[in-house]
Amino acid sequence: MPLRDYNAAVDFVDRNVAEGRGGKIAFIDPQRSLSYGELRDAVARVGPMLARLGVEQENRIALVLKDTVDFPILFWGTIRAGIVPVLLNTRLNADQYRYLLEDSRSKVVFASSEFLPAIEEAAADLPHLRTIVAVGDAPPPTLQLAELLDAQHEGGAPAATCADDIAYWQYSSGTTGMPKGVMHVHSSPRVMAENAGRRIGYREDDVVFSAAKLFFAYGLGNAMFCTMGIGATSVLYPERPTADSVFDTLQAHQPTMLFAVPTLYAAMLADPRSRTEALPDRLRLCVSAGEPLPAQVGLNWRNRFGRDIVNGVGSTEMGHLFLTNLPHAVEYGTSGVPVDGYRLRLVDESGDDVADGEIGELLVNGRSAAAGYWNQRDKTRTTFVGEWTRTGDKYHRRADGVYTYCGRTDDIFKVSGIWVSPFEIEQALMSHPKVLEAAVIPAEDVDGLVKPKAFVVLSCCADVDPDALFEELKDHVKSAIGPWKYPRWIQIMDDLPKTSSGKLQRYLLREMTLGGVDATENTRADRVVYGRAAAGSGR
């Protein structure tokens, strides 16, 4: 790929039309469908429309959009014009939006109608922001995307960009601290599409349904880059996915590929429809990423539906998947092997490589790595070290090259002098039929010794005898993974604190414990914490 004269939108949009797919459906949402030819025509009009709004090449605009066909129109139209779309989570509040709009210095915000109140509150007196445009219905004098595009009768030429120009931003969801603006270049989507596309096995005749949203790196790679990279069709669902809505979408559109996060697969298994409803015959592949796939969820899916879930690992910094199970050789409880095009290392705290079987931090090398974090020089230098990107995840690698997730670098702890992975304990707990979700953190007993503490969401709502449950789960974990690893305390929760993209926020559980939420129960090991608690602030 030449360094100069490359525009990602021309590659992903115009190329599909040039190769004869102009009449093929590119995107389907509940209201309408869009062919590749219609997409190209709409995308070409976005640049002149933005110019009329006072946006110039290399400026940034923010997208706060539901997953509808307007998303690819604005995303690719902005990139085609050499302007940088900043993809924002649709589940934030006004204060969070204000931080992101101020940090990104976005000139224009395009927001789906239901998000306008929060955006308008966030945008008050922001010096860089010129205009808010509604995507959908909105009362005057709010500008509307449909009217602006209809008024733009002619398309513009693509901007003169190169492969290393910044193409788009995403903000890291981050389990702690403020989100960081992750900057990706024009060449990155093609790298992601080729590497992950080959591993997962996309085909031109595929119909892809990603329940993971487009603002999320996993969803963007699934439903946009890999799908358009091969000229396939993507089904978009604008609302927050539930088990029921996913079953409905599968039946309505009969996709060939399903992409979701583990929490959604678990919710589908817990839904009554899973007992009576089969998956579409056309559905040949299910993929999970965004958080580690518990082995029991995969096994239950296989037993219930006769299909496997391919477990994948990616990151906002790398753009998409770089480590997955092989689709034809799924091994639950592992993360698989590196995707072709990426190299992986495991290192200790000194940066030295660790031997097979030892735990180390995962570093990734690949051409889809971000250019860095916006205005975060120290964090950029810490994460992007030469050709390598630090993930902050702990893994061990078998002699056959298969990687297994062990937790975040700040999650691993020692019990009786032996390193313990909270994820391993969580998987053991979730393999018990009474446990739907689990999270494990270190906690101190009365002697100041560190022991595992578990927070569990039960798979049923029936009352349980806490002491009997504790003994049952303790024995289950001991027999599954070792006698020193069982949780000394178990707290029953209504839900677990997670980021808006579904990642577990262990630090909130640690704060609950340190803050005295259950301090009286923490003084004695080997017990259940009585009563239920909700995650509350972790949502």
UniProtKB/TrEMBL annotation:
Record-annotated AMP-dependent synthetase/ligase domain positions: 17-374
Keywords: Ligase
Keyword S-adenosyl-L-methionine among record annotations: no
SUPFAM superfamilies noted in UniProt: Acetyl-CoA synthetase-like (SSF56801)
Any Gene Ontology biological process: secondary metabolite biosynthetic process
Record bears the keyword Amino-acid biosynthesis: no
Domain AMP-binding enzyme C-terminal positions: 424-503
Signal peptide: none
InterPro entries linked to this entry: AMP-bd_C, AMP-bd_C_sf, AMP-dep_synth/lig_dom, Benz_CoA_lig
Transmembrane stretches, start-end: none
One Gene Ontology molecular-function label: ATP binding
Gene3D superfamilies associated with the record: 3.30.300.30, 3.40.50.12820, 3.40.50.980, Luciferase, Domain 3 (2.30.38.10)
Name used for this protein in its record: Benzoate-CoA ligase family protein
Species annotation: Rhodopseudomonas palustris
